[in-house]
Amino acid sequence: MKRFLSLLAGMLLCSAALATELPDSVYVAVKDGHVQGIALDREKGYMYFSFTSSFIKTDLEGNVIGTINRIQGHLGAMTMGPDGRVYASLECKDDVIGQGISQRLGVENLSHENSVFYVAIIDVDRLDRKGMDPEKDGVMTTVCIRDACRDYVDHTFGCSGIDGVTFAPGIGKCSKKLYLYVAYGIYGDNSRSDNDNQVLLCYDIKNWKRKYETPVVFGTVPTNGPEKPLHKYFIYTGNTTWGVQNMAYDAHTGRIYMAVYKGKKPDFPNYPLFSLDVKQRPAKGVPPGLDAKHEILRLSDAGLLDEATGVRGWDFKWGSTGLCPLGDGLWYISENHKDKATGIQSCTARLYRWNGQGKQVFIPNK
Description:
366 residues; mainly beta; Tachylectin-2, Chain A; six-stranded mixed β-sheet; five-stranded antiparallel β-sheet; 4 helices
């Protein structure tokens, strides 16, 4: 027993020491775009930021180590992969943002039917200077998310593309293997009811590098990617504005967290943060608002309960522009800001500690 207590004390001291080594915040500012996601390589001491059409690598003091500034599409949420590369959502579509990016890069605007959605894979170890090019410098590959392409054409399930991404264990499986989860963007629309679920696609990336990863060539939109995901999950949350903006698996609580822009349907609590337990067993059933059977997941039995809908979540202001759990109760969470006078947009990746209580679900780690 004494040995156990000694080991436990040592682990707690080690965790506290690691926390003191981390800065309270990391700050980055840009002239174009707003922060979409963050990721941390704790071991190597680097942080990564996506800013709509650029990617930034910094040290933990916020000094810029390298950038990718010429990205053909809308770079969104991102996560560190088990292979040490960063995986991010990338949308090449016919909306206003997509048209603006195409015009700036001098490539052809995409039609609605030819809009394409990718997981962009960034070799961050090779990113060692500012202004690197994903085509000429070969620091990025893409894999097409074909289900999202199909659902986007008719906006099935309210699909507007993809955004949140994370690696997590297989849901309902007792295994340490990590799978890639990709969340749909979903249009905010109060006039329909088939958009009241979040949609998560689950992929095994074991053979992606050999079978699907495609180098970037500007002006082209390849569709190399798996025909279908392993699973397509539906989670009843009520409609949100643009779906899951950022998603993160936290080993400390055993949950996947989904940060959204709040929905506007008056019958829902419209929380900005939801979670689901990965140990749950998926069920087969008809999700609310739909008319066919799908794989269904339940929200966690945590957070604030809305009695009328059964939906649980948290009222936490931040997270939609970046969630980064460290696995020990600590998180870096993006706090985005725009200077109205200069137009400069910034991200303060602030260190928080998990608390789990109401609006104080996270507290600053000070």
